[in-house]
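yo

u said u wanted the structure for the complex thing, so here. seqs first:
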Amino acid sequence: MSKARANPFSSIAVHVALLTYTLIALFPVFVILINSFKTRKAIFRDPLALPDADTFTLIGYQTVMKQGDFFQYFQNSMIVTVATLFFVLLFGAMAAFALAEYRFKGNMIMGLYLALGIMIPIRIGTVAILEMMVSSGLVNTLWALILVYTAQGLPLAVFILSEFMRQVSDDLKNAGRIDGLSEYTIFFRLVLPLVRPAMATVAVFNMIPIWNDLWFPLILAPAEETKTLTLGSQVFIGQFVTDWNAVLSALSMAILPVMILYVIFSRQLIRGITSGAVK
Amino acid sequence: MTALKLSNVCKSFGAVEVLKDINLTVEEGEFVVFVGPSGCGKSTLLRVISGLEEASSGDVEISGNLVNDVPPAKRGIAMVFQSYALYPHLTVHDNMALALKQARMPKDKIATRVAEASRMLSMNDYLDRRPSELSGGQRQRVAIGRAVVREPDLFLFDEPLSNLDAALRMNTRLEIARLHRQLGTCMIYVTHDQVEAMTLADKIVVLRDGRVEQIGSPMEIYNNPANRFVAEFIGSPSMNFVPAELLDGAPGHYIGIRPEYARITKNGRLPGTVVHVEKLGGDTNILIDLGGGLTFTSREFGQYDSTIGDQISIDFNDSKGLAFDSQGQRV
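structre next:
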């Protein structure tokens, strides 16, 4: 850091602001975690206390493991999220490349059409989607969820990525063409690595809502073998009785993978911007 | 044999005509420079030759083959870009070898060619580095090396020195000239810098608004410009234009005088006031107000003493004055 910017007060102020934000963001996670290790009575007596010798219990985790096939749900969520991200990034990037790179009639209109989905919530079409899935026999399969989430994620992906693809140097792509690379090689080997930070942004934006979604799993894939983690956790929440130990334990375990994925992608956000391709 | 032949090449983007009926023949081994102000279509013309842009009409022939429908990689050309355009994920060696690998050339042949090119450009110590670990000049050398290994029939340079600083520009210019002597391959070079054009070219093509204004050797263009635009564009400081009436010429015509042909004398035909003096050490540029909004630049050899406000007069040898009509054409 340069001398002029090393003012200790502004540095402290920045850290105070960041720490406050971190505390606010982490507090709910912290409460879920500590309470998942407490007895039911202790949860309601003092929700903010840490578990001690009297109140510590693993009953919630045991319930979760016994009731339902927790690992199956976990696996379903993982498959749906990862497959969706793969398709969104692949198709989104390809569409964005075509829009950004090639001059053709209706390029502009096509771009607007693809971005239209950002403005219209996909849940409005739930009934039509359900009918479609029923007639195509995809109800109660993970494919139903993957397809719907891919459709939901594509507009924003195309929108963000095409903006970034326009910034990739034309000279670089042309150098590839002169060296005899195919358009696919140019796309995969030259352009994609340069827009990796944008890809990571799109991945993070898409990942969290998909992982947390309850709506479409409940409607399109409520069968036992296709339940996602969020849907699976709902069995512990009843209209009259809620097994809070189990709910909190299930949530604690659900947080983990999404955090790991987030860490992977957020590192990509930082890396790879410094490449030295041009200038 | 002709290295490149353009016949009636036109290019338009929508309603905008960027290139208008370009005809050009380039012989084997020639160094041709396209020069012109920005927006004159010189880069577009290079792109049409390379195949990155398709001509709207007209024919492009490279080494006697019609290449209108041939993709860039199969035209026997290599191109060096202003922004280097190196592949960021590949090492210097792989950057140079990629095109050859793509053409499925045997490994040992690739190795010899890359070794030869890196020796020629003294890049041997950097072969394992990535572009991000190189300086600007080194990056441009890699870009040139990437073109050299392909052993093309035609080299295309798109303002290759514009991103380099002045000292490096001079060195790289010499290097390109040396490369041309060594390889003897035809090179097409686009620039807006007339020093590069004058020093490198066997043949200069001056372009304006998508049209060829003049084609000729550097000295031909300098001594015998076809029109006022070329006369003004080539040469620094640029040529002076004096209304012919002041010199007993035809009304409406202009006389063009290069700054170095003007001399300051006692009773010259053009009296005026010194308004600015630029002392460059080697020579001195004196700006003289001739009245009526007309400023004349005179270039005196050596360190010439002159003060702003001095009343002086200039004269020149009539054989060095070029006459232009009111349309800017040579008379």
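Chain A touches chain B through 21 residues (CB under 8 Å). The CA atoms of residues 128 and 160 of chain A lie 28 Å apart.
cya
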